[in-house]
């Protein structure tokens, strides 16, 4: 499954990059994620409750942030195993400032599904992924405006 | 964790303890040994498990047994009355509406529901009403004819259906 | 006189199905029965690093967990293959082991890894989920042609380039090359005949029961041929004595080929029961069925057909890669070879034919016979070629076919037709079926209607297909020479009871075909007794002596003929008893309407009296054995060759690409017909499946070998409102070499219909000048893209 898209945020690349590197913020803004704990430098364990069309459940997954080039890019590696199937995805994230306090986040990657996840409902998954991505961007924007109102 | 439920199945009230996760179809098949209701898929698409609940066609794989508490259920075993075949059963036999017989109970239940709401359906209406039921044997051709036969029989019970 | 043959007798078996009293394998509950759940690989190709079953085994209600290692340690064999094909150089095909559960490596998504035995199905499943498996995922290949390329991952280390075999058939290749190089016109087509999933509505199920007290095994299974399953299970997999094993295939909810084969789960249930000494049931859920029932078709083909100036075919050259999946299913090697290559003559006089074919392993579900098995692939190839050729040569597609038809022959006064690809057709009048179909569709008017519609922007299309198939498999000596590891005769036992009632035991198996009715019609008519006096028994190795099962439209042609042989023996013996009772010479008697009569007199004796005399032989011919019970093996002299002409009329929605099948006309010749109602039903069902392949169905694998449409939400099966009512008719050309003159009707619909629909859609799209062939299934998206590219 291809994952590709972009979104513009009213903030500097630095701000966005730092937010994305912060486990607490990420846990807060990622749809479905209930916990996100650091298991090492740049590796995390996430527990997410997701309903993807016909398939719903609690997923536990490992995340790794690699090839970090602050504040421009990083590679997000996701590995999730569950009884209903496995997902492994590599997503390249890029941040490009397109103006003062305006940054375009782009992502490009591919998710490989196996097992029941692959077999059942794959056709609706890309739609679900789009929805989740939109939710994520919305939450990130909300978080940005919150931070701006209440700077830490 | 089990719940006590009472359901009326084919006219008989039964009270049983069911596990919370037990599907109605498994309750019918495993607990009540009514194996005429079949399981053909795991995504509620095939309709082999269709039964009548309070007179309405329902896929018994898509609800829990516990949800059927207090309901009135008819399965294929309850279709014929006093040894007389239901018109839909007669229709399926006369028009060769079944081959392997696996989808047949669900098909007939869906058809009974259709004929209750529309006693004189057109071919198109019949085909649309069967949207939720797969048959792999008949190509649906004779199932349509079987339901037309039953409709005729229900509307003109005294006349011989040609 | 016939009271039953040729009549639409209502089915004897219907009552139990209509009242919910059918008895399918999953309906059977045995005392003390446990339930099995099979843990399967989520990957198409992966090494098993470790398996931890401790958590599962500790769960309440779990009795035992076995893994592939336990299977390997027990020394049992793998699932055998029933047909051997040799490489062109004479080497035997690659035949890698197919263990009941894998211990080291999974080779397709769905490969069994472990089995949990528990008190309930739910506990077994929960425990299966609790088994921890560490996998090392490996690259996979799903596409047959790609799998043979250099550098692709190997499914089996000892099968280089993933080749199971290469194979050829027909005239010497140089002769075909020459014919094509001299041709006036050559039509070339490259296409895929996509993989489809049989989807019998009843998922597979198996109950293994070892009874320690009697040292006997019973297997209840969803099988189209219980005896063959028993033979393979005993002799090749478990090494247990055949006489201690009973295999029962009770009511079976459809097969379409997918339940012919001996599956790992059948042996596994017996193996587990052997250890735990209780009955154990496994029932597949639909998701498992999508992954593990043998799939069908999956050919990648390049075909070239040469024509002379007048449109006569001068040569046909074919190169095909056939996907066999990860392991060899029971008849897998036979399907693309002897059931496909041999049908490439079609109904045409093509003088030179050559096919080159590779059987290829891939990291996918095994592929084997699915309704039609090889013959739909051959027909699709020929009939698409004919249509494209007609277009290219600006000829009418119906006329082009007529021009190339083999002339009529009855197989009695005129000899059978010898093809270039090994077979000898039995009898046929191929013009007659197409002529009738053209009349039914009103072809002349249709082209006017189509032209009118096009002016109004409506896309109407008509598509033809004429086909022939080889059924009633098959002469044992012939198939033996071609690599079959079994004979393909059938067994029919007729036991006349003392009261004149008749029990018939057939090795054929009905899973929807209505044998209990059709066979009874034959018996009742031959013996001149009421239909009610006949009982047909099938599906139980304990009651039926032996059998080869039901597939390849063989039940009536082969199984019915075996019964007729036994009936002849009964009538012969009855004549001896009657001669004695009537004090007449045997040759002065005639048997008709259920009685023996002294010719030219009114002296007669009824069948029932003779039956009683046979069992109470007080006044009896000297030296004659009492009783009336005969068993016969019938080994056919040839295949049978049903054929027909199918026409589809479609309308394509220009805005959505959606194809509406408006009419479907099928004229088939299946030889003599015993029960027209049942034959019609067989045709209808076949049509729906063939149309399904053309418009809706197709298994899709991603590049990692993941089946990505393995559910009814994703795999499109034809529903009632996707199909029209069918318009069907028949011609009757009896089969000259079996006593019933029947040819078989089970697969016909599925063979002719697919190319007719595709040809109709291509015809509808003609105004768009689409050059490239569209791949099946012709989904709205594909059609829309073709119109807009």
Automatic annotation (TrEMBL), chain A:
<dbReference type="Pfam" id="PF06240">
    <property type="entry name" value="COXG"/>
</dbReference>
<dbReference type="InterPro" id="IPR023393">
    <property type="entry name" value="START-like_dom_sf"/>
</dbReference>
<protein>
    <submittedName>
        <fullName>Carbon monoxide dehydrogenase subunit G</fullName>
    </submittedName>
</protein>
<dbReference type="InterPro" id="IPR010419">
    <property type="entry name" value="CO_DH_gsu"/>
</dbReference>
From TrEMBL, chain B:
<dbReference type="Pfam" id="PF01799">
    <property type="entry name" value="Fer2_2"/>
</dbReference>
<keyword id="KW-0408">Iron</keyword>
<keyword id="KW-0560">Oxidoreductase</keyword>
<dbReference type="GO" id="GO:0051537">
    <property type="term" value="F:2 iron, 2 sulfur cluster binding"/>
</dbReference>
<dbReference type="InterPro" id="IPR051452">
    <property type="entry name" value="Diverse_Oxidoreductases"/>
</dbReference>
<dbReference type="InterPro" id="IPR002888">
    <property type="entry name" value="2Fe-2S-bd"/>
</dbReference>
<dbReference type="GO" id="GO:0016491">
    <property type="term" value="F:oxidoreductase activity"/>
</dbReference>
<dbReference type="InterPro" id="IPR012675">
    <property type="entry name" value="Beta-grasp_dom_sf"/>
</dbReference>
<dbReference type="InterPro" id="IPR001041">
    <property type="entry name" value="2Fe-2S_ferredoxin-type"/>
</dbReference>
<feature type="domain" description="2Fe-2S ferredoxin-type">
    <location>
        <begin position="3"/>
        <end position="79"/>
    </location>
</feature>
<dbReference type="InterPro" id="IPR036010">
    <property type="entry name" value="2Fe-2S_ferredoxin-like_sf"/>
</dbReference>
<keyword id="KW-0411">Iron-sulfur</keyword>
<dbReference type="Pfam" id="PF00111">
    <property type="entry name" value="Fer2"/>
</dbReference>
<keyword id="KW-0479">Metal-binding</keyword>
<dbReference type="GO" id="GO:0046872">
    <property type="term" value="F:metal ion binding"/>
</dbReference>
UniProtKB/TrEMBL annotation, chain C:
<keyword id="KW-0500">Molybdenum</keyword>
<dbReference type="InterPro" id="IPR036856">
    <property type="entry name" value="Ald_Oxase/Xan_DH_a/b_sf"/>
</dbReference>
<dbReference type="Pfam" id="PF20256">
    <property type="entry name" value="MoCoBD_2"/>
</dbReference>
<dbReference type="InterPro" id="IPR037165">
    <property type="entry name" value="AldOxase/xan_DH_Mopterin-bd_sf"/>
</dbReference>
<dbReference type="InterPro" id="IPR046867">
    <property type="entry name" value="AldOxase/xan_DH_MoCoBD2"/>
</dbReference>
<dbReference type="GO" id="GO:0005506">
    <property type="term" value="F:iron ion binding"/>
</dbReference>
<dbReference type="InterPro" id="IPR008274">
    <property type="entry name" value="AldOxase/xan_DH_MoCoBD1"/>
</dbReference>
<dbReference type="GO" id="GO:0016491">
    <property type="term" value="F:oxidoreductase activity"/>
</dbReference>
<dbReference type="InterPro" id="IPR016208">
    <property type="entry name" value="Ald_Oxase/xanthine_DH-like"/>
</dbReference>
<dbReference type="InterPro" id="IPR000674">
    <property type="entry name" value="Ald_Oxase/Xan_DH_a/b"/>
</dbReference>
<keyword id="KW-0560">Oxidoreductase</keyword>
<protein>
    <submittedName>
        <fullName>Xanthine dehydrogenase family protein molybdopterin-binding subunit</fullName>
    </submittedName>
</protein>
<feature type="domain" description="Aldehyde oxidase/xanthine dehydrogenase a/b hammerhead">
    <location>
        <begin position="19"/>
        <end position="139"/>
    </location>
</feature>
<dbReference type="Pfam" id="PF01315">
    <property type="entry name" value="Ald_Xan_dh_C"/>
</dbReference>
<dbReference type="Pfam" id="PF02738">
    <property type="entry name" value="MoCoBD_1"/>
</dbReference>
């Amino acid at each position: 499954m291809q994952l590709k898209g972009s979104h513009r945020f009213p903030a500097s690349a630095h701000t966005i990059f730092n937010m994305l590197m912060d486990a607490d913020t990420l846990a807060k803004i990622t749809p479905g994620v209930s916990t996100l704990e650091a298991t090492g430098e740049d590796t995390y364990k996430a527990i997410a409750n997701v309903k993807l069309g016909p398939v719903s459940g609690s997923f536990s997954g490992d995340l790794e942030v690699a090839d970090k080039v602050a504040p421009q890019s990083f590679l997000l590696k996701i590995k999730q195993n569950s009884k209903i199937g496995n997902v492994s995805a590599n997503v390249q994230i890029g941040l490009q400032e397109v103006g003062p306090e305006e940054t375009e986040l782009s992502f490009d990657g591919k998710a490989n599904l196996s097992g029941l996840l692959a077999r059942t409902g794959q056709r609706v998954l890309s739609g679900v992924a789009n929805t989740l991505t939109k939710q994520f961007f919305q939450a990130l924007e909300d978080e940005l405006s919150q931070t701006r109102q209440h700077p830490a | 964790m089990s719940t006590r439920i009472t359901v009326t199945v084919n006219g008989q009230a039964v009270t049983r303890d069911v596990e919370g996760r037990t599907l109605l179809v498994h309750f019918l098949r495993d607990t009540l040994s009514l194996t005429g209701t079949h399981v053909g898929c795991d995504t509620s698409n095939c309709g082999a498990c269709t039964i009548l609940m309070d007179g309405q066609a329902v896929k018994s794989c898509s609800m829990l047994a516990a949800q059927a508490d207090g309901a009135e259920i008819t399965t294929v075993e309850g279709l014929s009355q006093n040894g007389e075949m239901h018109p839909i059963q007669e229709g399926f036999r006369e028009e060769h509406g079944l081959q392997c017989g696996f989808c047949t109970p669900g098909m007939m239940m869906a058809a009974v529901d259709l004929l209750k709401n529309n006693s004189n359906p057109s071919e198109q209406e019949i085909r649309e009403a069967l949207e939720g039921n797969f048959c792999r044997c008949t190509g649906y051709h004779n199932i349509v004819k079987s339901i037309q036969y039953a409709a005729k029989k229900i509307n003109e019970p005294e006349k011989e259906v040609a | 006189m016939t009271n039953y043959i040729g009549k639409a007798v209502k089915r004897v078996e219907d009552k139990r199905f209509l009242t919910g009293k059918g008895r399918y394998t999953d309906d059977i509950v045995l005392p003390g029965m446990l339930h099995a759940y099979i843990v399967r690989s989520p990957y198409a190709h992966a090494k098993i690093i470790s398996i931890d079953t401790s958590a599962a085994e500790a769960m309440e209600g779990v009795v035992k967990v076995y893994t592939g290692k336990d299977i390997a340690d027990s020394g049992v064999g793998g699932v055998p293959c029933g047909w051997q094909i040799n490489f062109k150089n004479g080497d035997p095909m690659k035949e890698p082991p197919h263990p009941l559960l894998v211990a080291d490596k999974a080779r397709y998504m769905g490969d069994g890894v472990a089995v949990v035995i528990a008190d309930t199905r739910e506990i077994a499943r929960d425990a299966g989920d609790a088994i921890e498996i560490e996998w090392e995922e490996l690259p996979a290949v799903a596409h047959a042609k790609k799998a043979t390329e250099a550098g692709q991952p190997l499914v089996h280390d000892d099968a280089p380039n993933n080749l199971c075999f290469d194979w050829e058939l027909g005239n010497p290749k140089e002769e075909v090359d020459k014919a094509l190089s001299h041709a006036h016109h050559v039509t070339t087509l490259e296409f895929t005949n996509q993989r489809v999933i049989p989807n019998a509505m009843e998922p597979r199920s198996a109950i293994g029961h070892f009874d320690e007290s009697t040292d006997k095994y019973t297997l209840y299974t969803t099988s189209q041929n219980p005896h063959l399953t028993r033979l393979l299970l005993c002799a090749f997999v478990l090494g247990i004595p055949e006489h201690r094993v009973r295999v029962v295939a009770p009511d079976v909810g459809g097969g379409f080929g997918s339940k012919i084969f001996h599956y790992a789960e059948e042996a596994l249930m017996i193996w587990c029961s052997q250890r735990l000494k209780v009955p154990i049931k496994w029932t597949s859920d639909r998701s498992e069925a999508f992954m593990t029932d043998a799939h069908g078709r999956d050919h990648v083909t390049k075909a070239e057909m040469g024509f002379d100036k007048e449109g006569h075919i001068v040569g046909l050259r074919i190169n095909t890669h056939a996907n066999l999946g990860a392991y060899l299913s029971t008849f897998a090697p036979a399907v693309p070879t002897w059931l496909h290559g041999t049908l490439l003559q079609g109904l045409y006089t093509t003088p030179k034919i050559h096919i080159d074919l590779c059987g290829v392993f891939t990291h996918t579900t095994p592929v084997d016979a699915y309704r039609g098995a090889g013959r739909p692939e051959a027909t699709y190839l020929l009939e698409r070629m004919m249509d494209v050729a007609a277009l290219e040569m600006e000829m009418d597609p119906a006329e082009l076919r007529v021009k190339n038809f083999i002339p009529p022959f009855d197989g009695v006064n005129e000899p059978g037709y010898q093809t270039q690809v090994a077979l000898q057709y039995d009898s046929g009048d191929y013009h007659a079926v197409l002529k009738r179909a053209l009349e039914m569709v009103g072809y002349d008017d249709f082209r006017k209607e189509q032209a009118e519609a096009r002016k109004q922007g409506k896309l109407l299309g008509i598509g033809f297909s004429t086909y022939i198939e080889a059924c009633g498999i098959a002469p044992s000596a012939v198939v033996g020479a071609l690599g079959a590891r079994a004979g393909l005769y059938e067994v029919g036992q007729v036991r006349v009871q003392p009261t004149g009632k008749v029990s018939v035991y057939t090795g054929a198996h009905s899973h929807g075909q209505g044998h209990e009715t059709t066979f009874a019609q034959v018996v009742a008519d031959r013996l001149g007794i009421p239909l009610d006096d006949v009982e047909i028994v099938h599906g139980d190795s304990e009651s039926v002596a032996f059998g080869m099962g039901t597939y390849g439209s063989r039940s009536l042609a082969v199984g019915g003929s075996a019964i007729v042989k036994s009936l002849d023996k009964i009538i012969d013996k009855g004549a001896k008893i009657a001669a004695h009772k009537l004090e007449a010479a045997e040759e002065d008697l005639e048997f008709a309407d259920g009685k023996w009569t002294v010719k030219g007199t009114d002296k007669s004796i009824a069948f029932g009296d003779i039956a009683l005399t046979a069992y109470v032989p007080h006044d009896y011919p000297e030296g004659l054995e009492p009783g009336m019970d005969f068993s016969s093996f019938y080994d056919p002299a040839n295949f049978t060759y049903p054929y027909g002409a199918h026409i589809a009329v479609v309308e394509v929605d220009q805005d959505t690409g959606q194809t509406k099948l408006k009419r479907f006309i099928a004229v088939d010749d299946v030889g003599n017909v015993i029960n027209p109602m049942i034959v019609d039903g067989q045709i209808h069902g076949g049509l729906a499946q063939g149309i399904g392949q053309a418009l809706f169905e197709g298994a899709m694998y991603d590049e990692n070998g993941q089946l990505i449409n393995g559910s009814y939400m994703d795999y499109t099966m034809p529903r009632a409102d996707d199909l029209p009512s069918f318009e069907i008719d028949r011609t009757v050309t009896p089969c000259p070499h079996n006593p019933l003159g029947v040819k078989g009707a089970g697969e016909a619909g599925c063979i002719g219909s697919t190319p007719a629909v595709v040809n109709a859609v291509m015809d509808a799209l003609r105004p768009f000048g689409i050059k490239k062939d569209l791949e099946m299934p012709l989904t709205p998206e594909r059609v829309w893209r073709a119109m807009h590219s």
